[in-house]
């Protein structure tokens, strides 16, 4: 018995629509996370099936922004994390510069 779920073709159609209409390719994202976030957005607008949600995306341009904000919120969280930036500045960049040594102008 496999732990993998069969693809939900209705959901996959939403992803194809997003790719064709807006050029966003979410094939590298975890399906379970994507499905949960799309379902969340569908619930917020009172839609319970994927075909109707595609229709909604076609008539409401603002819905794309709302959906992308819902999908991408964890990705952008890194950029609002001061500790991550401090670590990059203090440890990563410093180490890279130290390995490189002084620049030569000749």
Task: Supply database-style keywords.
single chain; 106 residues; mainly alpha; Chemotaxis Receptor Methyltransferase Cher, domain 1; 5 helices; 70% helix
For the CA atoms, what is the radius of gyration?
20 Å
**What coarse outline follows from CA principal-axis ratios?**
elongated
Please summarize the sheet with the most strands.
none
Structural class: mainly alpha
CATH topology of the domain at 9-76: Chemotaxis Receptor Methyltransferase Cher, domain 1
On the 0-100 scale, what is the average pLDDT? 85
List the secondary-structure elements in sequence, H or E.
Answer: HHHHH
* Extended strand count: 0
- Give the oligomer, counting copies of the same chain as homo and different chains as hetero: single chain
Helices, strands, pairings?
Layout: H1 9-22, H2 31-44, H3 50-59, H4 61-77, H5 82-100
Helix pairs in contact: 1-3, 2-4, 3-4
Description:
With 106 residues, the protein is mainly alpha-helical. The chain has five helices and no strands. It has a domain at 9-76: Chemotaxis Receptor Methyltransferase Cher, domain 1, CATH 1.10.155. The chain has helices at 9-22, 31-44, 50-59, 61-77, 82-100. Helix 2 (31-44) crosses helix 4 (61-77). The chain is elongated. The model has no long low-confidence stretch (mean pLDDT 85).
